[in-house]
Amino acid sequence: MVLKVFFPSCCSSAESGILIGRWISEQNSAVILAVVHFPFIPVQVKQYLSEVQRVTKVSVSVLGSWSHSKQEKEESLSEFLEDLGTIFSHEPWIQISKEGGSKFWSCSTLQKHSNNPKEEEIILVYYDQRKVMLSHLHPPLDTGTSTDHKADDASKLSAIFDTVAKSKILFMTDRYDDGPIKLTHWQSDGVEASIIVELMKQASVPACMLLTFLLSLISGICRSRVLKFWPLSFLWSKLSTCEQLGHRLQHLQVLSSNKKAETQTQLMRKANIFVSLLIDVALGILLMSWLYRKNRIGHLADTLIPMADHVAEELQDLLQWLMGAPAGLKMNRALDQVLGRFFLYHIHLWISYIHLMSPFIEMILWYVGLSACLGLTVALCILSDIIALLTFHIYCFYVYGARLYCLKIYGLSSLWRLFRGKKWNVLRQRVDSCSYDLDQLFIGTLLFTILLFLLPTTALYYLVFTLLRLLVVVVQGLIHLLVDLIDSLPLYSIILRLCRSYRLAG
Questions:
Q1: For residue range 478-490, what is the model confidence (pLDDT) as tens digits?
Q2: Which ranges constitute the DSSP H helices of 256-295?
């Protein structure tokens, strides 16, 4: 019968000792988990394995011996390793040896208690214990699984992965000194890093508690009744900066939660949020450091006022063009002059407002630049709100033109129903027949004619201001698209896919 021995690659350079792992009788396989080095006391090894077996519910035992002689093989060491089979009674006793300067291994079995010892063909499977442990290829641990289902599972390769996964307590290293029992496994080379990780875990507990308290305090303030009054609630719903701060507040609450991630999906979600937040803050700090060098904020404030004046002059030229004969179109001169002067007066008010705020713009930009330390997304949202404020007159023009155009379309549709002897029934929400007298038809004809001939002038203003509003919305949409990309892009999963794809194998 073929005997399969799964040997971890991290133990190939380990010193001589004994092999501990799990024996799977259904597969006639041995899964080696670690190597215990000399010197050791057999009683302490048995106590340690019984404790591991009690915690992991895996039948971990001593399966054989490992000999790694860096010089010529000594007879005393070989005899000593064979005698260990009498202390740790396991059938078969696996003996694996490797010479220091040789690439060939020697693997054999020893059956002392068998009456008819048979030579077995041995297949040595060399596996990466670290990748098997971190790839999550093993099935989920379900305590309610029946014994029949477990017996069927034991005939599959998943039993190997399940053995390594359940033996996680065996690989945990949080002390520099292993104690009386020294092991070699996939975390043996990173003892210092494991200790640092454990120290960081201990230090993160009070930090998370403090962050949770601050976040709960901020959330309580945001949910208070003071912010539900009309001006504050309106600003909170319209400003994208407030929306982004609320979004980041939810992310921080997820990260600072003391509830452990139960599934791999929850763990990956937390990791993606953490990496996204970290990169966001790093990019924000880089932006803030760039803004405060060489007085770039002052230069930006100096160019902002001329830019606003240039936009206002372009709008004035556009309105002057519309008040004439735009593209050779014949417009209603009286309505054209009224609308043009109305919008020109709004531009004049806007220029006066910008020049009134010009002494404070540099100071405002200086304090706005400090918000970049909260993240690049917050700075981009503030930029979107600034664009909305600087183009507020364009928004007003669009609203005026849209309302006027909609009123004329609504009036024309009502008068058109009057010509056909119809009317809109408000109670039943339908069009009913109606009889009109001569005076009503005459007045309706006059109003329909007036609205119809005034419609091209109104439609042209509405079209021009809709295109201007659409341009502003496209710019803001690109900014919000970048913000959503930073918020929702699973950067941690992409990095794992590129660097350590085996971590996403499950």
A1: 999 999 998 888 8
A2: 264-291
- DSSP assignment string, 434-462: ----HHHHHHHHHHHHHHHHHHHHHHHHH
**CB of 109 closer than 8 Å to CB of 95:** yes
pTM to 2 decimal places: 0.65
Distance CA 65, CA 241 (A): 65
More confident residue, 261 or 117: 261
C-beta separation of 300 from 294 below 8 A: no
DSSP classification of residue 92: S
Long-range Cβ pairs for the range 202-211 (8 Å, 24+):
208/256, 208/258, 209/258, 211/252, 211/256
Q: What is the dihedral of CA 74, 75, 79, 81, to 10 degrees?
A: 10
pLDDT for position 140: 47
Angle at 444 between CA 440 and CA 447, to 5 degrees: 145
d(CA 266, CA 271): 9
- Mean pLDDT comparison of 41-50, 142-151, 250-259, highest-scoring range: 41-50
Q: If we measure between CA atoms, which residue out of 440, 387, 386 comes closest to residue 417? A: 440
Beta bridge partners of 24: 29
Mind listing the pLDDT tens digit for each residue in 428-482?
778 777 777 888 888 888 888 888 888 888 899 899 999 999 999 999 999 999 9
Question: For residue 186, what are the contacts with CB-CB under 8 A and spacing of at least 6?
Answer: 8, 10, 129, 130, 133, 171
Q: Could you tell me the sign of the dihedral formed by the alpha carbons of 436, 440, 445, 450, in that order?
A: negative
